[in-house]
């Protein structure tokens, strides 16, 4: 199976002594991997290093066998990401924002934009200014902008933040459909354990900056999580 992400010996330490240490992680094409861990465990740091938004102090990240440090543009080409608040021209509509993003890529049609708006439930609001959007609607736009380039790897940091029940169900359906029909790889961090449990086939626990991988099994994910956190604090 093709490797979508290979992280080797990755360390990023901040001046406060926190960060992530010596992470080794391989994610295969088509997997949906959930990243779990307590507040401050290093999930966002891991995802930022994975997408080149932060440089690790040590270690290596390869996306589809291309080294992100030495060949950033090529490595990041097939990646869509939502890390932190959605970036948008607030005075413009989601449609116009997506149209602008689509110009950076080849082969993205107006039909693709309409589809992404539908996948994120933004069709009824497609011509409204983003400045008038609620937090959850902005989050929906952020997800739409991560999907629009038809990436092979989609990295979502806490995508469920601010979403209502409808948004949550739609996000789950969209991820499952894209995964099933296009074999896209997803890496998703969230504190919503039950949501990740429904979506993911593998889980990456990040506790005290260190990583451990868990395959979906019969034991409830919440029990596995609590056990791992308890072991880590002993
Ligand atoms: N730019 C920075 N400067 C200093 N410390 C930082 C910086 N970014 C992150 N940290 C520290 O690194 C640790 C990991 O942060 P990170 O945001 O990756 O955690 P997280 O697991 O995503 O947390 P949460 O679940 O609360 O979002 C935290 O203790 C944070 O204080």
Automatic annotation (TrEMBL):
MF terms in GO: ATP binding
Annotated PROSITE patterns: ABC_TRANSPORTER_2
InterPro entries documented for this protein: AAA+_ATPase, ABC_transporter-like_ATP-bd, P-loop_NTPase
ABC transporter domain ranges (all copies): 5-233
Keywords: ATP-binding, Nucleotide-binding, Transport
Domain of life, per lineage: Bacteria
PANTHER family per the UniProt record, alphabetical: ABC TRANSPORTER, ATP-BINDING PROTEIN
Name of this protein: ABC transporter ATP-binding protein
Keyword Ubl conjugation: no
Keyword Transport: yes
Gene3D superfamilies: P-loop containing nucleotide triphosphate hydrolases
Family listed: Belongs to the ABC transporter superfamily.
């Amino acid at each position: 199976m093709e490797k979508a992400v290979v992280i080797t010996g990755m360390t990023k330490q901040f001046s406060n002594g926190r960060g992530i240490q010596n992470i080794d992680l391989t994610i295969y094409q088509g997997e949906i991997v959930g990243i779990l861990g307590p507040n401050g465990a290093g999930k966002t740091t891991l995802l930022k290093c994975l997408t080149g938004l932060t440089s690790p102090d040590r270690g290596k990240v390869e996306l589809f066998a291309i080294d992100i440090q030495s060949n950033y543009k090529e490595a990041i080409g097939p990646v869509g990401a939502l890390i932190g608040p959605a970036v948008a021209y607030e005075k413009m509509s989601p449609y116009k924002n997506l149209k602008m993003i689509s110009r950076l890529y080849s082969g993205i049609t107006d039909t693709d934009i309409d589809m992404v708006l539908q996948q994120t439930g933004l069709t009824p609001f497609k011509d409204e200014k983003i400045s008038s959007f609620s937090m959850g609607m902005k989050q929906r736009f952020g997800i739409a902008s991560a999907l629009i380039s038809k990436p092979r790897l989609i990295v979502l940091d806490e995508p469920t933040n601010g979403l209502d029940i409808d948004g949550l169900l739609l996000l789950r359906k969209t991820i499952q459909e894209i995964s099933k029909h296009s074999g896209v790889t997803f890496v998703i961090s969230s504190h919503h354990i039950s949501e990740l449990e429904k979506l993911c086939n593998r889980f990456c626990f990040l506790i005290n900056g260190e990583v451990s991988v868990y395959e979906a099994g019969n034991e409830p994910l919440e029990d596995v999580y609590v056990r791992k956190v308890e072991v880590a604090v002993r």
